[in-house]
From TrEMBL:
Family, similarity comment: Belongs to the histidinol dehydrogenase family.
Species this chain originates from: Silvibacterium bohemicum
Cofactor note: Binds 1 zinc ion per subunit.
Organism domain of life: Bacteria
Protein purpose: Catalyzes the sequential NAD-dependent oxidations of L-histidinol to L-histidinaldehyde and then to L-histidine.
Matching HAMAP family: HisD
Name of protein: Histidinol dehydrogenase
Residues binding Zn(2+), per UniProt: Q252, H255, D348, H407
UniProt pathway: Amino-acid biosynthesis; L-histidine biosynthesis; L-histidine from 5-phospho-alpha-D-ribose 1-diphosphate: step 9/9
Reactions accelerated catalytically: L-histidinol + 2 NAD(+) + H2O = L-histidine + 2 NADH + 3 H(+)
């Protein structure tokens, strides 16, 4: 883990590089992903089975769809400890999503005019649940529960080699449509449909470079949540405990060898202590060690204002700060963890806010996955004769100013009919 002081030109250049970062890992996968997506789009189940055999080791006889009996059997075989943990996470994630759900409302901007909004769920969504280095039942919870709260009628889960824990989570949530599919082929099946898998309206969930590349390729034909890059963590602290900060940095770094782990502080001694702690902790964590070596940085700013500016410019996926007072200056972050006891992994599992978060600086423009990703806001407008008389002339004037005479006539004809019928 490297120490960078904003006093030096070289350090400032490195910080600028971090701020301007974008994940390019998926770009290398684009050509292969395109071949797979095109193949599944044209070949349907036959192509899916070929890739399932080549990439995931399944036989041609292995059913693509996981039976409800197999899903329920995983729940029955799960330990009571796992069941209790899944239930705790489910309760908090669901409660948080329910509070996020927008309201329907009506408003009268003028007499005789009523406007408003209605909330409607998407018809079908696909939830991608990775199962590469680690089983991720938590990702199933984080993608399926907001869709359920939104009222999505058809929720499809795909996972290349789902672990028993993931199947148990699916059983607990009542998931009935789940497939042994992963990679670009799973994204293609969800986006375009095959004989076995009906297409969906939107695909959500993180994945590897091939999954991300495939999501980019299908984005004009099927909505997606976001292009997820490697995991990121920033800790901005003046008074934190070195061991605790280091533990969080290592925890997020173990997700991916390309993960980004950054400390921002004005305290040089704290930075050095954190670097020493991280060095000790990565000795027994190979993936975290591989990530920290090129992407672990302790930035020493010259003032708290500079530290805050750097933090917002980084727009991190995960951000830890010292106290609730820090929330006032934060503008760009996927999810914020406040205080020494708010270990970042708590947010990965049980806090309630979604752990599918924007990376690569995308937190400048959006937050994490939420119930809003599964909803449509349908706006409504209703005019009476009085409303037409009040607002019609202004609308006609604007239409004529734009040269859209048909627009003006569509309003004027109603006024004319009203006068003729009077």
């Amino acid at each position: 883990m490297k120490l960078l002081s904003t006093k030096t030109k070289l350090a400032r250049q490195r910080i600028d590089e971090l701020i301007a970062r974008r994940s390019t890992t998926y770009e290398r996968a684009l050509p292969t992903a395109k071949r797979i997506v095109d193949s599944v789009r044209k070949g349907g189940d036959r192509a899916l089975r070929r890739y399932a055999a080549q990439l995931d080791g399944y036989s041609q006889q292995t059913p693509l769809r996981i039976s409800e009996a197999e899903i329920q059997a995983a729940w029955q075989a799960a330990s009571s400890e796992l069941k209790k943990a899944l239930a705790t996470a489910e309760k908090n994630i669901r409660s948080f999503a329910q509070r996020q759900r927008p309201k329907e409302w009506d408003f009268a901007p003028a007499p005789g005019v009523k406007t408003g909004q209605r909330i409607r769920p998407l018809g079908a969504v696909g939830c991608y649940v990775p199962s590469g280095r680690y089983p991720l039942p938590s990702t199933l919870l984080m993608t399926v529960i907001p869709a359920q709260v939104a009222g999505v009628d058809r929720i499809v889960v795909v996972s290349p080699r789902p672990a028993p824990e993931t199947l148990a989570a699916a059983a607990m949530l009542g998931v009935t449509e789940m497939y042994r599919l992963g990679g670009a082929q799973a994204i293609a099946a969800l986006a375009y449909g095959t004989e076995t898998v009906a297409r969906v309206d939107k695909i959500v969930g993180p994945g590897n470079a091939f999954v991300t590349a495939a999501k980019k390729l299908v984005a004009f034909d099927c909505a997606i949540d976001m292009l997820a890059g490697p995991t990121e963590i920033v800790v901005t602290s003046e008074s934190g405990e070195a061991a605790e900060i280091a533990a969080d940095l290592v925890a997020q770094a173990e997700h991916d060898p390309d993960a980004l782990a950054i400390l921002v502080t004005t305290q040089t001694e704290l930075a050095r202590a954190v670097i020493a702690e991280v060095k000790q902790r990565v000795r027994s964590n190979k993936i975290a060690r591989e990530a920290i070596a090129p992407n672990g940085v302790a930035i020493v700013a010259q003032s708290t204002e500079e530290a805050q500016t750097i933090t917002n410019a980084l727009a991190p996926e995960h951000l830890t700060v010292d106290s609730a007072e820090d929330l006032a200056w934060i503008t760009n972050a996927g999810s914020v963890f406040v205080g020494r006891y708010s270990a970042q992994p708590l947010g990965d599992y049980v806090s309630g806010p979604n752990h599918t978060l924007p990376t690569s600086g995308l937190a400048r423009v959006r937050g994490g996955l939420s119930v809003m990703d599964f909803l449509k806001i349908v706006t409504v407008q209703e005019y009476s004769v009085e409303g037409l008389q009040r607002l019609g002339p202004a609308a006609i004037a604007l239409a004529e100013a734009e040269g859209l005479l048909g627009h003006a006539e569509a309003i004027r004809v109603r006024s004319t009919l009203r006068r003729n019928n009077a």
